[in-house]
Amino acid sequence: TCKDGMEVKVFRMPQIELNNHEALTILLHAAHMHHPKVPRQIEFPVFVSIAEVCLRYRCTQPLELQVEYQWLPQWVHMVGDENFDGFLLISYAFGLRQIFTRMSKTAILNALDDDEIQGKELWPQPVRDKIKATRAAKLAQIQECCTGAIEEYFRTPSETTGRKSSVGSLQLTTVPRCPKGSHLCDATN
User: Fold this and answer.
1) What SS3 class is residue 114?
2) Distances in Å between the alpha carbon of 1 and those of 4, 6, 7, 8?
């Protein structure tokens, strides 16, 4: 309350920093050169939490050597497992191009739809957007290829008037698409 009777309510919000698996603590110990307090081996969920913290604060430099020479070799054998969400985040945060490429391809191939990709809260939004765009482009290419193949088999005879072929007394309207020249193969397809 001020001298003139005006009342001002001041609220202090405690700033809560997420420290899942002590990830922020580990990052701060590394940044302040407290090397004995930075673990040499960590569990995979801790590794993912550390990558998330490093990405949030854009501060990977204190842990880059630790990641490259101690933590990544400990977990790199699991790159092909079901932990691709975590590896995608780790590789994005620490700039591991080969692992990121592999994990993003896995994400593109295994995603059922855009909602599933958008639901990956662990991934940064730019990564989700890029994966959705790449997935849409690849699906469009597949659809175009399939449509082209189907259209070759379902052309009307008037479209292919210059390409006549005959088998015995039968007059066929197109040259077969089959590399061996088999109309039976085309009919089966």
Assistant:
1) helix
2) 8, 6, 4, 6
- Which secondary structure element, helix H or strand E, spans residue 27, and what is its range? helix 23-31
Beta-strand ranges (E) seen in 5-154 are none
- Return the number of other C-beta atoms located less than 10 Å from residue 134's C-beta: 14
For residue 91, the one-letter residue type is S
pLDDT digits (tens, 9 = 90+) for 80-114: 767 778 899 999 999 999 999 988 888 888 888 98
| Contact assessment for residue 94 and residue 54, using Cβ atoms and an 8 Å cutoff | yes
Rounded to whole angstroms, the Cα distance separating 113 from 154 reads 30
CB 30 within 8 A of CB 54: no
| Whole-prediction pTM | 0.69
Structure tokens at 182: 């088999």
